[in-house]
Specification:
six-stranded mixed sheet, four-stranded antiparallel sheet, 12 strands, about 30% helix, about 20% strand, globular, disordered N terminus, binds 3,4-dihydroxybenzoic acid, binds fe (iii) ion
């Protein structure tokens, strides 16, 4: 996480994402009953065994897999791998019941505690931060229509080069990361820049898998948010921009039609409206 001027590498962002995960996330395997561990581990292994049988997987392929898995760990790319290829299904299952906003995956680059900006303001950015200015106005309400004054909107996103502060070197700590607090009527106004499409690191083991399988490494441009209010379920979402060539084939399968913004040109930038409806925590 030190600010140097070398080019970003998979090992930089992988090591930072692994460190961040260990610092912030509960990893409570100890609280999972053994019956459930047994069930889930067995079914996942069964699925792997079935694939090996169906396709006559060879020892060469098995050893290539072993070497690759070792490499994923060494490069710190487990958060990347799981967030790109697995998290979207976990998210779907976790939020299926909601009546309010649809969310999507968190990805590996959230950092709690971004600087407070009040109910309207500019996200921390460098002087001459490259990119089109984007002014976003929105409102946070509960599913019954009640304004959620004091709701928090945490925003983080990549810069115009597709890089995230604290994960790529040489970017100020909180660049393009801010926490907004909705005013009395649940409203907020955020000024930032439009992020660029993001390519997951191609120089590490996940990049090797992508190349070996003939896939591409792109995610469409997106704004990440976490929206929270007392008594309501946390909403983790991403917002996308129409016309991005990777909206239809996101490597992380995280785009949903409800998450598409509709920005319009205004002055020397763009304006956009997007509101959030939060579900109360079930009684
Ligand atoms: C990854 C990066 C993202 O910015 C994101 O939103 C989801 C996944 C990744 O590199 O794994
Ligand atoms: Fe992202």
């Amino acid at each position: 996480m030190t600010a140097t001027n070398h080019v970003p590498t998979a090992a930089d962002s992988g090591a930072s994402a692994t460190e961040r995960f260990k610092a912030d996330k509960p990893t409570g395997v100890a609280n999972t009953p053994k019956e459930r561990v047994d069930l889930l581990a067995r079914e996942m292994l069964d699925a792997m065994h079935a694939t090996i049988r169906r396709h006559n997987v060879t020892y060469d392929e098995f050893n290539a897999l072993k070497a690759w898995l070792i490499g994923v760990g060494e490069a710190g790319e487990w958060p990347l791998f799981l967030d790109v290829w697995v998290e979207h299904v976990v998210e779907q299952v976790a939020t299926e019941h909601r009546q309010g906003n649809k969310g999507t995956i968190e990805g590996p680059y959230y950092v709690p505690g971004a600087p407070e900006q009040g109910d309207r303001g500019v996200v921390p950015m460098r002087e001459n931060e490259p990119g089109t200015l984007l002014t976003w106005t929105g409102r946070v309400t509960s599913v019954d229509g009640r304004a959620l004054a004091g709701a928090q909107v945490e925003l983080w996103h990549a810069d115009a080069d597709g890089l995230y502060s604290q994960f790529a070197p040489g970017i100020p700590e909180w660049n393009l990361r801010g926490t907004f607090t909705a005013g009395a009527d649940g409203r907020f106004e955020i000024r930032t820049i439009r992020p660029a499409p993001y390519q997951i690191p191609t120089d590490g083991p996940c990049g090797k898998l992508i190349a070996a399988a003939g896939w591409h490494a792109w995610r469409p441009a997106h704004l990440h948010v976490k929206v929270s209010a007392p008594g309501h379920e946390l909403l983790t979402a991403q917002l996308y921009f129409p016309g991005d060539e990777h909206n239809e084939d996101d490597i992380a399968s995280a785009v949903k039609p409800e998450l598409m913004l509709a920005p319009e040109p205004a002055g020397d930038g763009e304006i956009v409206g997007y509101d959030f409806v939060l579900d109360p925590v079930p009684a």
